[in-house]
Design goal:
The chain is built from 23 helices and 22 strands. The protein has about 525 residues and is α/β, with parallel strands linked by helices. The protein has 4 domains: about 100 residues, 3-Layer(aba) Sandwich (Oxidized Rhodanese, domain 1), CATH 3.40.250.10; about 130 residues, Rhodanese-like domain (Oxidized Rhodanese, domain 1, 3-Layer(aba) Sandwich), CATH 3.40.250; about 100 residues, Oxidized Rhodanese, domain 1 (3-Layer(aba) Sandwich), CATH 3.40.250.10; about 100 residues, 3-Layer(aba) Sandwich (Oxidized Rhodanese, domain 1). Strand 12, helix 15 and strand 13 form a beta-alpha-beta unit. The longest helix has 17 residues.
Length: about 525
Amino acid sequence: MLSKPSDEWQTLPELIYWDAQQVADCLRDTTEHVLIDVREEGVFATAHLFYAACISLSRLELRLPFTVPRRDTCIVLLADDFQTVHRAYEVMRQAGYSNLHALRGGNTAWRDAGYRLFSGIYVPSKAFGEVVEHEAMTPRIQVANAREHLRDDATHYFVDCRPESEFQDFSFEGAVNCPGAELLLRLPAIAQSRTLVINCAGRTRSIIGAQSLINAGLSNPVYAFENGTMAWHLDGGALQPGAAALLPRPNAEAIEWASQRACALAQALQIPWIEPETLASMQKEKNRTTYCFDVRLPGDHARGHWPGCLSAPGGQLVQSTDFYAPVRRGRLVLWDTDHVQAPLTAHWLVQMGWEVYLLKTPRDLPSEKEARPQWPVAPLNTRALSAADYLALAQQQTVMLIDCDDSRHYRRRHLKEAHWLTRSRIPELRHSVKMGTCLVFTASDPKWAAWAASDAHQLGLDSAYLNAPGHEAASLIGTDTVLRWLGPTDDAWYSPYQLDSGVAQAMKAYIEWETDLLSQLHQEPGVNFQIYKRPAQ
């Protein structure tokens, strides 16, 4: 339920309040801007603006350097109450962000002005997928027909186009794994004359994956598996950890063929190639945001990449563009070594309305490993503990171990006797922690825990954070699965697959939500999808 607009939206230095009409005008403008919803992702997913990017209070310091690198970007803060906006404003102001705005009254004001609110996450990308299917008339196969053909791998080949980690969590027997931007590179060499069925966990990635192969001119019949593994589950099919290995890289001849097809798509959409010198000039421009992404698989990125490129696998970049590049009207520069994944990904991003460039570098790139920008590494007012230090402290005084990581990870397993609380709710502990208790925060990334400990310290609470590799902490402290919640698990959006109950009902609701997005885009400010139509052969 949305809160009523508050009369307590107080004046703050250097913060400009906008009404709904001014925010809508900003969305239609051609200058750079970013709408940052600072609520927790679970809350955000209930209702938000179409182009709002969720960067929650709990992760602001850690995500802003990569997602909003330019400190004078026009930023519009979104939340349903002044206190949340105020906390975000203080973080951003201390970090040097100077062009700060906020929607007075939050979501309620937006809705009351006659604009639509959307549920879910990655909505622009999800809506784009529905538009692609509608405009391009992407062929699809329903679960009943899929079951029939799955028995005959001589005629049909089922490909799960999600990242390898998701495939390993669950898929259906008979599917192989090849993430979206890798399809054109890896699949043709082994597809032979078989019909290709591309699936994901729901709809978007299967639509984009199938249409990628069609747009590239692959001669095989290609279908998107309608509603993916959700349809499989709802039809009574078993989901199990994906067992097949990632499809291998092909030989040089196959790579060259795929490159020609991908580059032809880029040329058809007039996507320019640039030299490293041009990229360097772009990055020096103070009034433009230039994202540079390596769109290959994360493992390839880790082994070496062009300096300054952040990892954003192409399929995921299209699937969740607002996560990687929330600054609208910014520039995207894509890079790979094969000239396949980058042009294939770019041809989708251009259709979404982005300004996109392709970085041309030698294919025999020497291995370079660039450190990601750090801002800041950890607050100065925090105490770091090794696993051994923590155990020693626990012998001396009362300690409360608090996991401030993703609640979905906490549910699986966590350090022994750890409680859970998302960082943004730490102020709620102020009056409940017993005198003499030291709060020790832990997370998969120690920087998250450090910032949580800093927040607690500023509230006058005795605090520290665990600065130890996960395996070392687990070995010395131990683990368990007992759930000790200190607050609601609204830090993350739980997919239907991650629910404890009501899975089938949630899947049906999700499919209905996604297919309904197409009808909700009418007159939405700033939406400008232009779908590519492959010329008839």
